[in-house]
Amino acid sequence: MARIPTPLWKNLIAVQVYGANTGVGKTVFSTLLGSHFLKRRANSKWSLRYIKPVSTGPADEADDGYFQKYTGSRAVTLYQFKDAVSPHVAARDAEKIPSDGAIVQKLFSELRKFSPQDPEHNRSMGLAIVETAGGVLSPGPSGIPQADLFRPLRMPVILVGDHRLGGIACTISASESLIMRGYDIAAVVCFDDKGKYKNSEYLRTYFEERDIAAFELPWIPDLHGSNAEYESAKMREYYGAESNSQGLYNLADHLIDQHSMRLKELDSIAVRTSKSIWHPFTQHRSIEKPEDILVFDSAYGDYFQTKHTTETLDSLNNNTDYPVFYPAFDGSASWWTQGLGHGNPKLSLAAAYAAGRYGHVMFAGATHQPAITLAEKLLAGLKNPRLTKCFYTDNGSTAAEVAIKMALRASCRRYNRDGSSDIGVLGLKGSYHGDTIGAMDASEPCVYNKKVDWYRGRGYWLDFPTVKMRKGKWIVEPPTDAKHDFGDPSEFDSLDDVFDFKKREPRRDYHAYITQRLDSLVKHQGRKFGALIMEPVILGAGGMLFVDPVFQRALVNVVRRYKFDESVENPEDANAWAGLPIVFDEVFTGLYRLGRFSSASFLETHPDISIHAKLLTGGLLPLSATVASDSIFDAFLGEEKSDALLHGHSYTAHAIGCHIGNTSLQAMEELDRSSEWQTFRKEWQKKVGSAPSQADVTTPYNPNQSAIWSMWSQRAITEISHHPLVDHLIAIGSVLAVSLKDHSGSGYTSTAAIGLRDALLKNPLSQDVHIHSRVLGNVIYLMASMTSTPDTLSTIESAFEKQLDTIFNGSQ
Fold first, then answer.
1. How far does the signal peptide extend, from start to end residue (predicted)?
2. Which of 77, 310, 419, 626 could form a disulfide with 52 if both were Cys (CB 3.0 to 4.6 A apart)?
3. Strand intervals (E) in 557-623
4. pTM above 0.85?
């Protein structure tokens, strides 16, 4: 969906009129409301506009003509289809079916043109009435329900209730469909049927009990069998009748008050936040004033609706076509959780269903369908013969905490150790597994943990070569001070070559280095270890470090063969853990973030414990899973309860999260087979700069041709890698991470990327492209959602490149 701001201006009230059904009087209501606002001109300056985005039937019978006839104000239809049928049927005969994005963009442009401009301090006010076709879920031209079609704009809704028999149910159902999609219902209106069904009476009570204003409107004159002249006279009398005034005054006042309250609320949020909120990962001394706090009103698809600061809006007073909000691309995928786009109606419906069916049920010694289904989906998707049991927790940190408990218990039992032993973990430098105490202790001292008073750093973390693109070439590069251990850098033409184990493993022997380190630690220093824990492929919070996959694979193989206790033999069962339990933390890299269900598959090896979160619920709710083998599970079997894994949370395996997880995984599995992802994959089958062949266009995707791919284009990442400000970058799956040059030193404490981050978000008012991103020291990263389109990402790539150029040229 195109990047479009929410249409909120200080001097324009824009409302969208939905009907609970077709034939409920939407156009009559719109005309009543418009006529009333025109009458208010005596006391204030009001302008009026009616917009019908999509209309079907003969043009001379269109609703815009009716509105214009009785109000005298301009009315416009954006897309008119000649057949009087549902838009998705009528559009079939059109020369070209307009896309959903085109319809929404055209509607916003029309509203923007109408936003009143008045030199007298914006005293002129406007009312824009946007009337939909049919009911709330009636399909638009593409077939998408209208409530989804217009959701990117999230305009305040006036819902016209159904006054007919069965209309109560229709109206309530329509309201719930809107609420589930995140709309604010400004008001519900219903025509008084003179006591026949008493729908308006019931609906007014029903909605007011739910804090939604409801209004009753005078009954529409019966014009059955009348001629055009009589009908015209009767309706002019109806629209001008004083008897209609009181109800319409109350409704109009309510709309004006709601508009003012919304603006006031938005203006106050940042100040109230600065007084009451303690932000995560934030040094509050860096927040000099409330305006430094971003205010998000809503989000949809790939974009946040972000409020302009008051300072910015004041500077735009003479350019009133700028709305209060601007769309900002969610460049961090909302802390790596966002998978299926914000405001996804499938996930919202799944949440509503599970909430209605279960609410919350405790999970100790019990079960429910969403939990067992999700466990089975995870086990099937991981394709790991070792993994058999799924333990649910709340988030990535607690999932890692559980994994460490599992692994240490298993190793302590096998090696006959007790809790008093000083047992650590093996891992990689720069790794990080979460913010709980146990998970922090499994990482080396860093900015996240070294000032935590209970942190002890229980382990040893190995250095490793990294993968990066520099000046258009993929390179495997050793750490600066470890070339004697890993040799010289190696260049590769593609990521497929980097992951070619058959060719690379015989040439790059990491086994000797790892074995020497273990000998020094275990045999010479007498240190004890209970697990190997690492993030497959990419270390996220540590700075988006792309580990040489040959090294990670070698590390697993060496640890499994190594004798950590000479008196203990490894088990004969090929699926039981050996050496040490291997824990893969896939919280960041798993579940299609890198283009595959499991990032372990890139290493062609299987862990004994696997951790999953973030994308598990598509970014909607916290839920995590720690998946383990039978040989890990058996370590907790015993005669006493104290032998069990005594870990859990009140919301363990909560049914809402599990059901959303099932919905999310199913959607991502469908994306994995989709034409959209095939487009990304095919683009990565070609070498950069080569023209597409006929085979590129017609041949189905062959996973053996290009196993490694990215949603970010080869052209863009190659050009960015040559930029004078860029040291190197990585791109795989939905992840793009760019390391900027910093002569004072890289790492988390670097400030090299902050200027670019701020410029991407705040500066490009003229370009109308804003990117909300996060930085890790000198690394700025962008992450697509699984549903991002090539067109969207191309726009983001272009804006990123232009902003790099602007900063570079400004520094010269």
1. none
2. 77
3. 582-585, 609-612
4. yes
